[in-house]
Specification:
Structural class: mainly alpha
Mean pLDDT: 76
Largest sheet: 6 strands, parallel
Order of helices and strands: HHHEHEHHHHEHEHEHEEHEHHHH
Number of helices: 16
Helix content: 40-55%
């Protein structure tokens, strides 16, 4: 065994043409089991480099191309797989280090990618057809660094193509079904000699679409801008509210517009002191995307209401003042502060009204309502708008204050019913317990009470002899 090993190593070293290798072989024959690390490099065969699969369209840098040209030719072992083998990876480098690609090279890569897509589509993979691809799709494919990324993008486009084909197929099926149903209806009408009433036959009614209702309500708001009384919503409290309170205020402002729009006699609403860079107005713009369109019937102002309307007509509605609003005056312009004060309960609206020198009033809630224990007297903005709309229409506070949530007030009728029900639970008769066993089955707990004691003769109360001692009675023998 050792002889064969020595002979094989001797023949291996002698095949080397260099003189240094021959000297090293002689030294190696003296001790075959000890190998010098410096001699190992001289005796080894040229290394083989295995080419790894990757992006076939990656561009190499200039430094890498020079290094590739300077290297000696080496044996390359190609593995079976992608026919478009990968060049030395340079796609992972930053875009600033990549070589600029010419138009001819880009078109060449595009043709190769189109061929790749066509082959994958013919093989039945999750790849859309070539007719589905557009220019922005190919631009995106050319930017993808690896083949796996392109495969994922092809699968994504394939799902979109399948969804479009499914929708088109369903549309065609519905069209065929509609034609069949219309043909049956026409055949039925031809065979029927009488008049058939109802929709799709002979009818006196017209279909009103949602767009028609929308235009009609917008036209009503346009008419209210000309003739209806005005109502102002003061939107200058954004800095005193948190982000959550601002979102609540924006939603309530949107509901104010909706409630006023659906009413038969709407107000001419004006959103004053609006800060379009603030959180409240930005959220409101998300709720009403068309609020800045000139044809949309909404009034949003950056200016203060004192600059738009006469100061003597303004009345600020604040719950912190002491004067109640007795009746609605159509000549006055009422102002409602657009603020949600779940955290900050300071009288900011009262301070602003005093600073501007305006008249103030509050809703007579305590006069017409009995508030429940633990319930606050705060109302939302849309509830205030609903109350003012009904007050303008009817002039009755009982009707207008029906928009106050019932959970906040005490209902005397329901409270009286609850008390009566509670009292009836303790009004239980015990006379059925004193009856005999035979009558106890037919008796009820709410039966009429019977007299337990009957008046006897000689049982009259005598005040003179009371508490003087026991009365002696004769015992019968």
């Amino acid at each position: 065994m050792l002889r064969n090993l020595v002979r094989w190593q001797a023949c291996r070293t002698l095949l080397n043409k260099s003189a240094v290798a021959q000297v090293a072989a002689v030294r190696h024959l003296s001790n075959p089991f000890k190998q010098n690390p410096h001699e190992k490099a001289a005796t080894e065969e040229p290394a083989t480099r295995i080419k790894k699969p990757g992006n076939p369209f990656a561009k190499a840098t200039v430094a890498q191309e020079l290094s590739f040209n300077a290297e000696e030719p080496e044996t390359v072992i190609d593995k079976p797989g992608n026919p478009f083998g990968r060049a030395p990876a340079a796609q992972e480098l930053p875009s600033s280090q990549r070589v600029s690609e010419t138009k001819e090279e880009r078109e060449k890569r595009l043709k190769v990618l189109q061929l790749e897509v066509d082959i994958a589509y013919q093989e039945g993979r999750r790849v859309p057809a070539l007719e589905f691809f557009q220019e922005h799709h190919w631009a995106r494919v050319l930017e993808l660094p690896t083949k796996s990324a392109r495969s994922k993008y092809y699968a994504f486009l394939w799902q979109i193509e399948m969804k479009k084909e499914s929708n088109q197929r369903k549309k065609e099926e519905r069209a065929v079904e509609t034609e069949r149903r219309v043909a049956e209806i026409r055949k039925e009408r031809a065979e029927n000699n009488h008049i058939v009433y109802g929709l799709a036959h002979t009818s006196m009614f017209l279909r009103i679409y949602d767009s028609t209702i929308n235009h009609w309500q917008n036209n009503r708001l346009t008419r209210a801008m000309q003739f209806a009384p005005k109502l102002v919503l003061d939107c200058s409290y954004d800095q005193y509210m948190t982000n959550r309170e601002s979102s609540y205020a924006a939603k309530q402002l949107m509901l104010c517009f909706a409630e006023n729009r659906m009413n038969d006699e709407p107000f001419d609403l004006h959103y004053c002191n609006s800060n379009f860079e603030g959180n409240c107005m930005q959220i409101l713009q998300r709720y009403i995307p068309t609020m800045h369109n000139p044809e949309f019937p909404i009034n949003v102002h950056r200016e203060c209401f004192t600059e738009l309307f006469p100061k003597k007509q303004l009345v600020y509605l604040t719950p912190h003042c002491r004067e109640d609003l007795v009746s609605y005056d159509p000549d006055d312009i009422y102002i409602v502060g657009a603020m949600v004060d779940t955290v900050n309960n300071e009288p900011l609206s009262l301070a602003k009204a005093k600073r501007l020198g305006l008249r103030m009033a509050r809703l007579p809630l305590d006069r017409y309502l009995q508030w429940g224990a633990g319930s606050g007297k705060s109302l939302t903005l849309n509830q205030m708008i609903s109350i003012m709309l009904d007050l303008k229409k009817t002039g009755d506070w009982d009707t207008a204050l029906q928009h106050v949530p019932r959970r906040k007030v005490v209902d005397y009728h329901s409270e009286r019913q609850a008390l009566n029900k509670r009292a009836s639970k303790f009004n239980v008769r015990i006379d059925h317990l004193l009856k005999s066993e035979g009558d106890r089955r037919t008796s009820t707990a709410f039966a009429e009470p019977q007299k337990l004691r009957h008046r006897k003769e000689g049982m009259d109360f005598k005040l003179d002899s009371w508490a003087t001692g026991k009365r002696k009675t004769k015992q019968s023998s």
